[in-house]
Amino acid sequence: MKDIPLHQLSDRTSSGLQLKHFRIGDLPEDKADELGAHRDDHYIFFLLEKGSASMMIDFEQVNLHQGVLYYVLPAQVHHRIRNEVAAGWFIAVDTSLIPPACRNIFESGLLLQQPHLLDDAQLRQFQNLLLLLHEKCDEDAADPFHIPVIHALLQSFILMAAGCFNDNIAAGGNVSRPAELSRNFKKLLVAQLRSNKSPSAYAASLNVSESYLNESLKKITGLPVSYWIQQEIMMEAKRLLYYSQLNVKQIAHQLGYADHSYFSRFFRKTVGVTALQFREQYRK
């Protein structure tokens, strides 16, 4: 039974960081998985210095070009970046090394995160920092300060990146109550999706009324709680249909539905085709 592959950073490094500089024409170091897609248990950041690249994330193609900073969240299903005509940086970071305040920024959006275009000064600063970090990673690991220095430089990178994506925080550093509630709802939704599908239950977990949670989400996203619960369920169902070999009954049970017939009807009503039709269409 083949599920979506999960790549673990600990299999490749013990420092919580993997840093690579790629050049135009570089080929992947290892073979892609059968369906060319996987999840990671860590964050991935990309900084493009030259050219252009693209990648598929949760059925959406993201196009990157010179001077763009981008990140992929843990558990998002994605294909390898297509960088045949691009040069830049790949930074994989263990989630434990991302400060909570930065995670709130990176994980706050209910929609797919968008690339951030750096200005010339920002691009130069990121390049200089990553070059220094790269040099330090290659130095003698026996130095007792080797890992602390690497992590300190990494923290600078993460904080700078979070600042670039921090569109919802005002100059004074305060977050509006609806924005904060939306962020907390997103984190709760990802964590509890399989066991909790009730808007009122999410509201109770967040210590607010269902009407206030709805009002807050509508203010930030334009759509109610039920829509985002439905979207998250359907996204995970699509991931499993496309990227795994699980059958519809197994997928229904994995998503917390005891009645797979109900899940099948729900999928068809929401997506417009049956689960099997979706799998056939997208695997052509």
TrEMBL record:
Residues 183-281 form the HTH araC/xylS-type domain. It comes from the Bacteria. Keywords: DNA-binding, Transcription, Transcription regulation. SUPFAM superfamilies: Homeodomain-like, Regulatory protein AraC. GO terms for molecular function: DNA-binding transcription factor activity; sequence-specific DNA binding. InterPro entries: Homeodomain-like_sf (IPR009057), HTH-like (IPR037923), HTH_AraC (IPR018060), Tscrpt_reg_AraC-type_HTH (IPR020449). PANTHER family: ARAC-FAMILY TRANSCRIPTIONAL REGULATOR, TRANSCRIPTIONAL REGULATORY PROTEIN. This is Transcriptional regulator, AraC family. It comes from Mucilaginibacter paludis DSM 18603.
